[in-house]
Amino acid sequence: MFDIACKLVGILGFLLSVFNLAMVIWQNRKRLRIRFGAAGILSLPNHTDLYQIAYSIENQSRLPISITRIQIQVAGKMYDCERLPYVIETSEYRVGGEVVDRTLVKSTVLPINLLALAAESGFLAFSIPQGTQSANDKDLIVQIYTNRGKVARMTLSRHEDTLIS
Questions:
Q1: Could you tell me where the beta strands, DSSP code E, fall in 13-160?
Q2: Beta strands 87-95 and 98-106: pairing type?
Q3: Is the Cβ–Cβ distance between 54 and 35 less than 8 Å?
Q4: Burial (CB count within 10 angstroms: exposed 0-12, middle 13-18, buried 19+), residue 54
Q5: Which one of 1, 27, 66, 115 is CB 3.0 to 4.6 Å from 147, fit for a cystine?
Q6: What are the residue ranges spanned by the domains of the chain?
């Protein structure tokens, strides 16, 4: 009788260990929720356009993650996110004609470091050939690289959340 009880406790312990391992793997897997929003195009003097797009990214994993590279496809070619910040928007607060406060909104510089269960939003800037992309295009073909592996190339719709596992 004691021999049967020991075997049952051993089997139960093994099953609980396998269940625990599966839960840890499930909770710590790479899970990003990404959303691209409003876009704008600014013509630069060097015959290129600066494609600016709003984004928000949520890390739904229990481990931190860094987004090291973001690319968009324009006219069949992949373009990297700009490494330098560009001014997206400026606003001034004036009192009696005198500037009291000035706010600059700049594009995000990669890498984007997200702690566990954290989120970030901002603007991304891409330097693309003039006239190849419209600010009204709804779908974007995007590649995102992280320190926890490359996310496959995917087509994302602007203004819609996309869960990346």
A1: 32-43, 48-59, 65-74, 77-80, 87-95, 98-106, 112-114, 119-129, 139-146, 149-157
A2: antiparallel
A3: no
A4: middle
A5: 66
A6: 1-29, 31-164
Cα 32 to chain centroid distance, Å, stands at 7
Are 30 and 15 in contact by the 8 Å Cβ rule? The answer is no
Q: What is the DSSP letter of 7?
A: H
Please say whether the beta carbons of 68 and 147 come within 8 A: yes
Q: Would you state the structure tokens that stand for residue 139, as one six-digit string?
A: 């779908």
For 51-98, write each residue's pLDDT tens digit: 898 999 999 888 899 999 999 988 888 999 999 999 888 888 989 888
The structure's pTM equals: 0.78
User: Looking at domain 31-164, does it have CATH number 1.10.3720.10?
Assistant: no
Residues 6+ apart with CB under 8 A from 89: 104, 105
The residues facing 149 across adjacent strands are: 146
DSSP assigned state of 47: S
